[in-house]
Sequence to fold (80 residues):
Amino acid sequence: MPFWNNGPEDLVYGKMAVDGAMWMPILEKAAAKLFGNYETLSGGWMGPAVQMMTGSPHFDTRHDSVSIDELWSYIDSKLN
Fold:
C-alpha cells in the first residue's frame, strides 16, 4: 500500500482504524489491483468496493436530515 512516509499512520489512501485495523485500506488496495491502479478507482468511497467484492447491494443516502424511522423505512425498502 502507498504511504507518504514509512508508518501505517501515513497511508496515502485511507487511514488506519482507531483500533489499529487496516482492513479497509487492504480492501481498497485489492480493488485498485483488480481495476489496474488507484487512479482508476472512482471517488474513494468504500461502498462500491465492498459491493464488488461481496456482491452485496450498495446504496448511498444522506441521513443527517431524516428521522430514525424514515431511515429504517428506507433501508427496509431496499432490502425487500
Notes: Residues 8-79 form one domain.
